[in-house]
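Input (DNA 3'-5' helicase):
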Amino acid sequence: MPHLSMMSAKNKIDGSVRSLAMNFLQKLQVDDTAPGLHIEPMNAPRDPRVRTGRVNQMYRAVLFKLVSEGETHYVYMGTWPHDEAIDIARSSVLKFNPIIGVAEVEDRGLPEEPQPAYVPPAPAPVVSPAPESEKPEPSIVVVPEWTNILPASWTAERLETEAGISAAGAQAALAATTQTELVAVIDSLPQMQGLVLLGLANGDSLADVLAELRDDSAGSTVTVAPESQDATEAVDPQDDATIDRALRASKGEFVFVGDNPEELREAFESLDFDKWRVFLHPEQRKYAESSNSGAFRLTGGAGTGKTVVLLHRARELYRANPSARILLTTYSRALAASLMQQLTRLDPELPQVEMGMPGITIAGMDQIAARVLRGASRDDVTAATAAVLGPDRNTLANKVSRVEQDFEAAVDMASPNLPEELLQPRFLDQEYQSVVLANGVVDEKDYVRASRSGRGTALNRGARQELWKVFAQFRRSHHMNDAATFPEIAAVAASVLRTRAAAGGALPFDHVLVDEAQDFHAPHWLLLRALVAEGENDLFIAEDSHQRIYGQKVPMSRFGINIRGRSRRLKLNYRTTAENLAYAMSLLSGIEYSDLEDAPETASGYRSVRSGPVPSVLAVADASAEVEAVVSRVRSWLSAGVYPEAIAVLVRSERSVNRAVDGLLSAGISSSSASGGSVAGKGKVTVMTMHSSKGMEFQCVVVMGAGATEIPAMWTINGLPEAERFDALLRERSLLYVAATRARDELVITAAGEPSELIRR
Ligand SMILES: Nc1ncnc2c1ncn2[C@@H]1O[C@H](COP(=O)(O)OP(=O)(O)OP(=O)(O)O)[C@@H](O)[C@H]1O
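Output:
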């Protein structure tokens, strides 16, 4: 039976042709001489191994046929209408790239044409401009800075011989005069060549770029990359056996499915829409498969595929040991629900199970805390509650829903002798989580001695004594109602597990994988550490400090999570265009961020291989003109054929959600509000808060409400102690960054009145 490799084609085929193409490949995998397949060589092709096969009367599949050690190996490139398929087949060459160490397909042009001086395809805007009858929208700013340009030391010859770029690609790259043109060249090259060029254009050294792409440590048993210059020279790029070996490594844009029908189905289904299911970047594959001696942290900007790595890693851990108990967790229940759906898409066969069972458990951290308490004995919960909240507490029957109001009431009752800014509910809440709960403080004496590392505002002994009056009152009022906050419940659950572990009892999980960890509060970290024993592959933590929009930064090391030497960053953005990415990064420029360990977090080096329209910022006179501008932009997207469910309007406050929905509805555009993790529904434009949009993505996005009066929302900042204000302002900036990075293709920002200082440059 012939073996088969699938290539991640750039074109898409529609439903009926898809199932015929799948049928064709299933037959080919069994017998390439089967009647009806019509596997035919081409007349005068660039590569004699190219074949076409008959999918139906109108469509042809394009394949390469290799023979290595007596075995036939077909490479499926894609399916196209008959004439196009013939041209693609005749102009394509399958080869091994000895410098990058991968198989690749190069477009060399039709044989009767001279090898063309390369003309990069113009990047097509996704959306046509608004109809002329509509009022022109006043636009201020924004052309992203031209940051990606190939260093002048790269000549065409060096690109070809040292970096493995095709001759035509090298010429085109040097001829590109803008970032957009360069991205268009990159997008048209074989994938790995494109990634090499992208790295060089970002100023990375060739050695670093190649090391990243050629990494074979990810469990691949096939080593194809030559190790030295001599070896490079010895490799014949056209040799069938060499190409065959490279394809079997399933790297980059190829996946080897051999003669396995299940793998064929999985790879085929992901070809058009869900490439992330099978085609991972070598770095993504490495982090999904590597074994780590302890806790590991994966950082990376929005859209770099952190969630994709977590999903693959969960599957790899399960495959390596089906009796392992694996937890995939995140900040909220809504995001966990989205992880469940994505894991099912990756592999519906994976067992998604209840906590403590072999398989993969997916839940938000607060759900996990509740389950730990439900599964513990009454005595254990009573003891842990007393240990965390004080000896007179033993039940936690009700949830506190209005924490800030309860702090206000506690201040009134306790009337401490302190300046106003130390009595702000937001400050008190953070102090309570990060110091009181994190240190297991139960009385004034504990609080006076507790470590406050990482907290901005210094507090002397007297201030702490006064503050403790508030915390004690806060606890007393909840005692009367048997009520507890979510962070309190997480801290109690962690205490239950720590006591169990100290007595030699079993912990619920063998491996814990975390998404969106930048938003965890201190008790979440306590619980996380307590869920799994320290050891190999215990914790795998994905986070992006630039997306911290809740709570406070707390160093993981305070909770016994040490990632020293085990922290890596993903840089390739799979979600957004280079233009949207440049705009989103400009929102962060000049601002110092630090990661969970308080080390400076760089916002540089992120890149995208796609190009699209430059984002626009529309500054209009007032709120009603802003709604009009939003309606007009949404309408132009809809009339250009964008599906309503692929469009989102993201706003700063709940109040603005209604304003946007009402505006769209009265203009006859179907829309409704949605909260985290879900969209408004089929046929509807989604309107949601920027907070709710975390973790989501849409083809076209309007970020509405970037006016000076809306963002930063001053109620989140005013009244805070000086040292906390910077962090609060940073969260508002991050919120804009989160919102702007939800857009795949097109991004518009609107502001009523004066634009916010956060978007002015
Ligand atoms: N190897 C890949 N091939 C194709 N698409 C990919 C790949 N990796 C990720 N993607 C796509 O890129 C987008 C972003 O991926 P993902 O959500 O994992 O990123 P993220 O880093 O978790 O983003 P955020 O921090 O914004 O939540 C998704 O649409 C995902 O399907």
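The pocket of adenosine-5'-triphosphate is lined by residues 275-276, 279-281, 284, 300, 302-308, 544, 547, 574-575, 695, 697, 741 (CB under 6 Å).
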